[in-house]
Amino acid sequence: MITFFGAEDLETFIANLSVTVVVVGSILVVLLVVIAASIAKSRKKKTQALKLPLFVAIVVVVLGTTFTISGGTVYLNVKSATGGPVHWHADFEIWACGNEVELRDPTGFLSNKIGTATYHEHDDKRIHVEGVPTDLPYDYSLGKFFNVVGGGISRDTLVVPLNDNGKYFEDHHEETDGDGNPTPAPEQLDPFITTETEGKIVSFVNGETCGSDAAQVQVFDYKFDAATKTYKQTKIEDPANFMPAHEAQVPNGDCSIVEFSPVKDRTDKLCKQYGVRDADRCLDFGVQAKDRERVCDIREVR
């Protein structure tokens, strides 16, 4: 297995610290209250003398917990690279040997995302940044995104966490997608799929083959120009450190296509939110002909 190690970011550290302080503080308060209740029933003078120290201890624990949480929040915003919280989005697709691979879905009754509270995906092929980035470009990089969802990406390696129920591809959502057949050769991924402690993954290394053709990890990014209502494709040389545009909506936010395929200069894949507005391709992405003039208002430039 290919393993990636990502440094814990400041926001995650402070969040974990706050949770630990709350848990420890709550336990201490409960213990002190129980002791105070037992003392209240006692009539011994020595025991009664402990009431004030216990009360002070409870106050200290409560205030200490409160100050730790609020202090962490203040410190995080002071160290922020953006002056405070942000809400950015970028769309992405993952293709391997011509098949569109689905990132592992959120699991658990209360979980609606894969990743962290501030950097995640909601089974919508969209990168969400909702919090306080302190280290840019790392906090909004493709490298960190793949790390927090349980995978990894570099110039020559790609790891994608998969669903354990066999739904490895984006062919079960039954939506119109102008990229064409999402599973033309699903059997070509079988040699790359393994089962790890956290579940199934698919991993690739440059030089391995799709069928009989040598393939490489490649990333193509579409960036939108709102002034001209056009977008342009660029091949990314350093995927792990690539940072999309700081935008709330897509477009204007980027569309990043991650591929493991034979080497090429361009991709013909496109994120749906770009496709439904592309004047030349929107019908292929499900837009009705009667809505074309109203909806399809952007074009790709080369």
Structure description:
It contains six helices and 15 strands. The two termini are 38 Å apart. The strands form three sheets. Strands 1, 2, 3, 4, 5, 12, 13, 14 and 15 form a nine-stranded mixed sheet that branches. Helix content is 26%, strand content 25%. Helix 1 (10-40) runs antiparallel to helix 3 (51-79). It folds into two domains: 10-79; 86-301, no CATH class. By secondary structure, the chain is α+β, with helices and mostly antiparallel strands. The protein has helices at 10-40, 45-48, 51-79, 142-148, 272-275, 292-295, and strands at residues 86-96, 99-101, 114-115, 119-121, 126-131, 152-153, 157-161, 193-196, 199-205, 209-210, 213-214, 216-225, 230-236, 255-261, 299-301.
Q: How do you describe this structure in short?
A:
Helices cover 26% and strands 25% of the residues. The protein is an alpha+beta fold and 302 residues long. The chain folds into 2 domains: 10-79; 86-301, no CATH class.
Largest sheet: 9 strands, mixed
Task: Tell me roughly what share of residues is in helical segments.
Answer: 25-40%
Low-confidence sequence ranges:
3-7
Strand content: 15-25%
* Rg from Cα: 25 Å
Tell me, what's the shape? elongated
Overall tally of domains: 2
According to DSSP, the number of beta strands is 15
Mean pLDDT: 89
What is the N-to-C order of secondary-structure elements (H for helix, E for strand)?
HHHEEEEEHEEEEEEEEEHHE
Q: How many separate helices?
A: 6
The N- and C-terminal alpha carbons lie at a distance of 38 Å
Secondary structure category: alpha+beta
